[in-house]
Amino acid sequence: MISGAIFDCDGTILDTMPLWRHAASKYLSGLGIEVDRALGAKFFEMTLPESARVIREEFDLDSTAEEIITGIYGVVSREYHEKVGLKPGVGKFITALTQRGIPLTVVSSGTESLIRPALARLGLETSFMAILASSETGIHKRQPDMFLTAARLMGAKPEDIWVFEDALYAVRIVKTAGFHPVAIRDEASLSEREALEAEAEAYWEEYPAEIPAAWLR
Fold first, then answer.
1. Which is higher by pLDDT, 130 or 65?
2. What InterPro entries does its record include (predicted)?
């Protein structure tokens, strides 16, 4: 029976992956550096600080990593505060979970200061008992630590927690740690769809309006 749920944010709750795909190239374009727009794919699994360090080294910038982070943050911040929307069906599904009294947390490789205002604007911030983000914790989702911390906060065991993710590497991490992974379709991870379908317990094109009955038994 489901005793807790962990959600990734970008590409899983918020429809932001296209924004992040092009954030680095937009930042560099603002500096007069034209780059291949496919550059964003390289940073798909990186935290913002990791991306900043790579950009600084690859393009031999005089800016510090902190200045690059600030620049990229500026590119995406307004979108989070004003524009980004939800993935199909996720709002109703989160409501169904909270109405059952199931605790929820966010575990993200992103930045809490972007995630929280977006969720607040969309009416979902108070649905989550905690938001754990790599930029604040210093821990990457390539390790299970943040997921296990979320489990402890919810007072639930991994085997009773469902985790919603759009990235293959994260599905593999939580599966190995004993959680139940559900893969969420996102344009940014369509190339991994076959593997996601094989390794996750379910692959959802969009969220259902109700909790699957089997999870409540």
1. 130
2. HAD-like_sf (IPR036412), HAD-SF_hydro_IA (IPR006439), HAD_sf (IPR023214), PGP-like_dom2 (IPR023198)
Closest CA to 151 of 185, 180, 124: 180
What is the C-alpha separation between 16 and 5, in angstroms, rounded? 21
Q: How far apart are CA 6 and CA 154, in angstroms?
A: 10
pLDDT digits (tens, 9 = 90+) for 88-145: 999 999 999 999 999 999 999 988 999 999 999 999 999 999 999 988 888 889 899 9
State how far the Cα of 181 lies from the Cα of 107, in Å rounded to an integer: 13
201 φ/ψ sector (left φ>0, alpha ψ -120 to 50, else beta): alpha
| CA angle centred on 171, ends 165 and 208, rounded to 5° | 40
d(CA 135, CA 54): 16
Residue 9 near residue 40 (C-beta atoms within 8 A)? no
Query: Hey, is 180 helix, strand or coil?
Result: strand
146-189 pLDDT, tens per residue? Answer: 999 999 999 999 999 999 999 999 999 999 999 999 999 998 88
Alpha-carbon distance of 85 to 162, in angstroms, equals 23
Query: Who's near 114: CB < 8 A, 6+ residues apart?
Result: 73, 76, 77, 80
Q: What are phi and psi of 137, to 5 degrees?
A: -85, -25
Question: Which residue do the tokens 């899983």 mark?
Answer: 12
Cβ density class 94-103: b for 16+ within 10 Å, e for less: beebbeeebb
Q: Sign of dihedral through CA atoms 209, 212, 215, 216? A: positive
